[in-house]
Amino acid sequence: MKFGHFDDAAKEYVITSPKTPLPWINYLGCEDFFSLVSNTCGGYSFYKDAKLLRLTRYRYNNIPYDSNGHYYYIKDGDTIWNPGWMPAKTELDSYQCRHGLGYSVFEGSKNQLSAELTMFVPMGNTCEINKLTLTNHGSEHKEISVFSYVEFCLWNAMDDMTNFQRNFSTGEVEIHGSALYHKTEYRERRNHYAVYAVNTQLAGFDTDRESFLGAYGENSAPEVVINGTSKNSVASGWSPIGSHHIKVSLAPGESKSFVFVLGYVENPVAEKWDGPAENGCINRKPAEELLKRFDTTEKADAALAELKEYWNNLLNHFTVSSSEEKLDRMVNIWHQYQCMVTFNMSRSASYFESGIGRGMGFRDSCQDLLGFVHLIPDRARERILDIAATQFEDGSAYHQYQPLTKKGNSDIGSGFNDDPLWLIAGTAAYIKETGDYTILDEKTPYISVRRAWHVEGGEPVVNTLLKTPAAKRDVPIPKCLVACLKEAREKSESEYVISNSKGTVLTETQFVRVWKYITVRSTAERCYYTYVNGQSIKHRIKPRLGEHQPNNPKLVYTMDFKVTPHMLRHTYITNLIYKGVDPKTVQYLAGHENSKTTMDIYAKVKYNKPEELSSVVNAAFGLR
Prior knowledge:
The chain has 624 residues and is an alpha+beta fold. The protein is built from 16 helices and 30 strands.
């Protein structure tokens, strides 16, 4: 049976039946925001990392196939249908899905009403655009309702599908006009949220899944859609969703379009809130700026045109013309497109890879380089250095790494003998394509812990005897610190990045003096003395955050907390745990002898959050 065909002129694959043997997936996104979408609108979205920052839920290995996506229900009288057929599965009068380069278009019709849904991720933005156009092809006036529906993931996809005793208590939203904000864990430990909005007035909304679907309901027949009225539910725990209700009036021959935006927004920690933090109102300004870029159909169409132009320019780098039509099609369009998809995701997220367990493959990513280095040489260089940064000093490497943290994933571990060999092949391909031999001089940013420092009689002692064998490790340096450390290293005339005037390691007194250059910026209360008529008078001052020091205007008070060097170590490890890094990787980076030591120290960080205990206890007794 034939399910579709290639449209070479449009660079699209056209699917003519929704009942394909398996869901046929397209991959949207070129930079940091990505969506997987099937030919029936199933799929999900994530920012950078399909495991750690997933916006919407998708259920793998489920019945029916392809459960959960970004859906639009059309209620025309008593008939309820979807442009992509799923999940209502109402028999359509016509159906077509066109998977293009970075976009997909769904065209469905029922009872002389047609719907065209265009999905894409615009260049330079962290969002997915869904443009829905409805047209009345009949001779009578139509009054219809449209209900959108996405189910939010609670960010960490693995935790979202396993840690129910906690997850049923944490869901949180805000509603402002036509924008629905998913802000789960924003108050406790995150500085990012999701927004789902549409550029028109609403007849209603829902953010609670059970309210939308009904008791024991399912997404094939939501209670709200059947009744034709939203409940204006506000999620508090359980399963937050986003659903808009729009009432549409169409005269014969009339068309109307609506632009839906599903976006990811990240705020600086110092700018998380709109007003006092205790009010709990998120800073929506970045989200509002994002939504304004696509608040008309003309803006959405322009963004789609820009995306198509990007792909046309990219694929024109290399073309072949032969007497074989199928060869030209594969080489000029689909093989190159597939290579770019594997660059973006390295098979970490697909219909067969859930995006949860593996991250980016070391070997996979090296092999992928051979296919896309001619398309994006600058980004290929960056990828090579990212891969190399996960290597150990002996040349071995983690078999996988997480794209968000750029740190090795120890779920599978290391020791795959051919991993480093493929890095050689990938680097050679880059040099052959670009002639850039300078990449061989690059040093990947990590700290090799091989020596220990302690003090005897006030003098420093450096030796190779570490506290435990596990203390010998390679710790990746965050990119934000690489530049400043590199500058300090270039200025240093010693083997040490920071040394005394003799070029040797700092003494305890010298280290304390250097540390004061950091702590002097704190707002901690301090004292000074003046002498009046031979008497010593003590003065106390309490600096304010953001003020300049009176006797040194270049110094600004930037810290409102006390900090010690050891506190920085604890902060580093705490942040790893908050980001969902697995315990074995945290153990390695911390230099602990085993993961039990790690969890004995930091279990309170992962499990005992006082601000969450109340909701957890209430949920245990069925209270909300």
